[in-house]
Design goal:
Blueprint: H1 24-27, E1 36-37, H2 38-44, H3 50-58, E2 62-64, E3 67-68, E4 75-76, E5 82-84, E6 87-89, E7 96-101, H4 123-128, E8 132-133, E9 142-148, H5 151-158, E10 166-172, H6 178-186, E11 188-190, E12 193-195, E13 199-202, E14 210-215, H7 222-229, E15 234-242, E16 245-246, E17 255-257, H8 260-268
Parallel strand pairs: 9-15
Antiparallel strand pairs: 1-4, 2-3, 2-5, 5-6, 7-9, 7-17, 8-9, 10-14, 10-15, 11-12, 13-14, 15-16
């Protein structure tokens, strides 16, 4: 499987400290000891040495959960958001994984009812990195799902203003009438407001019970609700594209790392 490139250097307004590549010995240190001293966290992220990290902290250049930290010896927990120069940093390299999600898996990191989660399908990288799903696919929906530990990119891909496109293959319980297809194309008023698709069409070479829907809305179960609103039941729902990423070459239930070009594309959206 192909691993992603190392992250770019962080910009430093004073240009005093340079991002440093952690030594192999540092990589082997146990990162599971939480809470962790903030200067150690910065050192593991390759921002600076621990002594230099103390200077960064002292000068108010580091924030934790949105609050500027100047206290020496301050400790952070595993799920805290640490930023330097406005960028989220992690004591591990950012990773990006594309999963072809099968049915009957919950899109969450854990489930209180002990149902199967997508994390069980990415056990290998999940042991090394604090990855999480970007958005949700309901239990019955299959297809492209991105997992990462890059919080900034995840927020960007989910934010409505970026209008990230998703493409779904929908199989209905009966043929979709032409007038209903046109209603969807023109926009529908649902209980939580109007919804517009970017495109909708019948699947070429298939019956009219199969349609393709391109949409950028991230509202809960929105594709299913569109058709249910018109009296159709969705038998199968497969996301074949998310933010330009497809499941091509990835079998159901399998995953791969994104290529460097794919990561760069996502960051340029």
């Amino acid at each position: 499987m192909q691993k992603t490139d190392r992250p770019d250097k962080f910009a430093n307004p004073k240009n005093k400290f340079r991002r440093q590549r952690p030594s192999s010995s540092k990589k082997k240190e146990n990162l599971q000891e939480w809470p962790m001293r903030l200067n150690k966290y910065l050192a593991h992220a390759g921002i600076a040495s621990r002594r230099e990290a103390d200077e960064l902290i002292k000068n108010g250049m580091v924030t934790v959960n949105g609050k500027t930290i100047t206290e020496m010896g301050f400790k952070v927990n595993r799920n805290d958001e640490v930023r330097f120069g406005g960028e989220v940093i992690l004591p591990e390299k950012p990773v990006y994984i594309l999963l072809n999600k099968p049915k009957n898996y919950i899109t969450t990191t854990k489930d209180e009812r002990n149902r199967k989660t997508v994390m069980e399908l990415v056990k290998e990288p999940a042991k090394k990195y604090r990855i999480f799903p970007v958005g949700r696919l309901d239990r019955k929906t299959t297809g492209v799902l991105l997992l990462t530990n890059d919080g900034d990119l995840a927020k960007k891909l989910l934010h409505p203003k970026y209008k990230v496109e998703k493409l779904y293959h929908v199989v209905l319980d009966r043929n979709l009438k032409q007038q209903d297809l046109q209603k969807i194309r023109e926009g529908l008023k649902l209980d939580d407001g109007m919804i517009y698709v970017d495109d909708i069409s019948y699947i070429k070479g298939a019956s009219h019970s199969e349609v393709g829907v391109k949409i950028h809305s991230g509202r809960n179960r929105i594709v299913r609700r569109i058709f249910e609103h018109l009296g159709y039941n969705v038998k199968k729902l497969d996301r074949v594209m998310f933010a330009g990423l497809t499941k091509k070459g990835v079998e159901r239930g399998k995953w791969r790392y994104l290529t460097g070009k794919e990561v760069q594309y996502l960051k340029m959206l």
